[in-house]
Amino acid sequence: MSKPTSYRNVAGFRCLLNIEKQTSDLYLVHCGQQQCTPGYTYNHKIPNEYHLHFVLNGKGTLKVSQRIYHIKKDDIFLIPKDAHIHYYADMENPWEYMWITFDGEKSVPYLQHAGLSEDNPVIQSTIPNNAYQPMIQKILDANELTFANEIKRVGYLYEILSTLIEVQSSIKAKQNKYDYPSNTYVDYAIQFVKHNYNHIRVQDIAEYIGINRSYLTSIFKKQLGISPQEYLVSFRLKKSAELLINTNLSISEISNSIGYENPLTFSKIFKQTYGMCPKIYRENNL
């Protein structure tokens, strides 16, 4: 027979224990919040559930199967199943944390989506951990034995994990934002330059293909050895060289046609590349 659900609320410690299993998909076992004393040590028996801790303040140390992790404010750490666990608070700045203990068939995939596993039990939250505090406090507030509270507690558990997954997914999205290989983006950028070279900036190229400018610069340098700006200028000057040889357009008209309003600016850039001004280049090639 399982132990009855119990609730404790004393100075520096609040906990709801032995919560009755609600569903096989995901169910809460216990949760709480604790302000640890300096050096407070906890030696876990090999756990049968997953324990997820949200550090609100202070520091501490976690040992998982001979691996050591130094934990700080806004870190989240997992105590996985079937692992030898030992953790303790810092002597000078002891941690305060909240925790949820849960299990169920969905536990592993949910934790994996949040970036947590036995091999990776610690993550740094990109939002302050106190954002999770109201959800855990709602679980603790729903401590009376009622059917409504049983449903509420499961709902808050899902809310905590969905928030965690959403936050971690946004990190992954930023790290792996783009769906296509980098050469595909370079090819699209080159085609865009060919058709629009006379009136665009590098930012326009990045926005057209849907990536940020720094990533565009990175893949251009990696694939072509030059920046997008250098490629754009080079393409414009090649076009101007063709126009100088194959047309009777004036230097000013050619300058405008490739995107330079000031002919003097165009002439200066042209000379830096070809070693002579546009007028001499035309005369020599004619």
Automatic annotation (TrEMBL):
GO MF annotation terms: DNA-binding transcription factor activity; sequence-specific DNA binding
Protein's UniProt name: AraC family transcriptional regulator
Coiled coil among keywords: no
Domain HTH araC/xylS-type as annotated: residue spans: 187-284
PANTHER family (UniProt xref): ARAC-FAMILY TRANSCRIPTIONAL REGULATOR (PTHR43280), MMSAB OPERON REGULATORY PROTEIN (PTHR43280:SF30)
Species this chain originates from: Candidatus Galacturonatibacter soehngenii
SUPFAM superfamilies: Homeodomain-like, Regulatory protein AraC
Keywords of this entry: DNA-binding, Transcription, Transcription regulation
InterPro entries cross-referenced by the UniProt entry: AraC-bd (IPR003313), Homeodomain-like_sf (IPR009057), HTH-like (IPR037923), HTH_AraC (IPR018060), Tscrpt_reg_AraC-type_HTH (IPR020449)
PROSITE patterns linked: HTH_ARAC_FAMILY_2
A Pfam family reported for this protein in Swiss-Prot or TrEMBL: HTH_18
Domain of life: Bacteria
